[in-house]
User: Which sequence fits this backbone?
C-alpha cells in the first residue's frame, strides 16, 4: 500500500478531510496515493507534523516498498525544483505550487528532519561560480552562516540568490559579478521588511551541452 494512503487510513482520515487540513484539493491527495505525483517539501513537512513522524521516516523506503516516485532506491530520493531564482535584480517570490523538475539526492541528507529543494539560477550576478541555468540544491533554513550562498526573501514579495555577509549592523547581499551592486540591509530592515533566508546552497549542478 502507498505510504500516503497507509498513513491516512491509520489516522482514520478521508481524502477530503486530509485535503482540507493541508489546504489542497482531493485530486491532489489522490495523485499522491496513486504515485502519480509527490507532495512538495512544505507539504511533506506538514504531513510529518500531522502524523507525528519525521520527514525522513515519511520518506523511509522500509515503511513502504511502493513509493518509487519519492524513493528511487534504498539511499536516493527525489526533491522538487521550484522554477528559477534571480541571480540579479530581486523579483517575484518562488512559487512553491509550481514544480519544474526533480533532482535526486542522498536519502541520508534528510536525516534529522532536514528538508531540501532545488532552484534554477536565472541571470549572471553570481557568475563565474554560478551560471545561468545551474540547478541549486538548497537546505531549507531560516538562518545561515556569514559567507553562505543563499536564496533570500525580501519583503515577502521578492526573492534573490546572493552571498550573504553578516555584519554587526546588518547584512550584505553580495553578488560575485563585479558588474552588479551589493545590497545592504540594516538590522531594523531585516526585522521589519523582513529579510528572510529561505535556504542555503549545499550543491550546484550544471548540465553541459
Assistant:
Amino acid at each position: 500500500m502507498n505510504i500516503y494512503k497507509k498513513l491516512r487510513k491509520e489516522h482514520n482520515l478521508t481524502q477530503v478531510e486530509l485535503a482540507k487540513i493541508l489546504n489542497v484539493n482531493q485530486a491532489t491527495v489522490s495523485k499522491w496515493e496513486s504515485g502519480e505525483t509527490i507532495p512538495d517539501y512544505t507539504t511533506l513537512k506538514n504531513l510529518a507534523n500531522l502524523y507525528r513522524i519525521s520527514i525522513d521516516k515519511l520518506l523511509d523506503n522500509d515503511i513502504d516498498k511502493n513509493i518509487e516516485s519519492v524513493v528511487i532506491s534504498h539511499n536516493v530520493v527525489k526533491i522538487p525544483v521550484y522554477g528559477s531564482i534571480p541571480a540579479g535584480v530581486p523579483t517575484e517570490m518562488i512559487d512553491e505550487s509550481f514544480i519544474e523538475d526533480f533532482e535526486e539526492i542522498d536519502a541520508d541528507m534528510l536525516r534529522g528532519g532536514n528538508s531540501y529543494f532545488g532552484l534554477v539560477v536565472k541571470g549572471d550576478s553570481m557568475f563565474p561560480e554560478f551560471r545561468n541555468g545551474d540547478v541549486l540544491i538548497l537546505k531549507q533554513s531560516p538562518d545561515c552562516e556569514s559567507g553562505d550562498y543563499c536564496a533570500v526573501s525580501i519583503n515577502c514579495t521578492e526573492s534573490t540568490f546572493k552571498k550573504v555577509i553578516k555584519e554587526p549592523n546588518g547584512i550584505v547581499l553580495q553578488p560575485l559579478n563585479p558588474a552588479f551592486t551589493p545590497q545592504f540591509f540594516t538590522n531594523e530592515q531585516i526585522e521589519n521588511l523582513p529579510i528572510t533566508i529561505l535556504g542555503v546552497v549545499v550543491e550546484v549542478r550544471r548540465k553541459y551541452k
Q: What stands out?
A: The longest helix spans residues 41-51. Residues 61 and 74 are 6 Å apart (CA to CA).
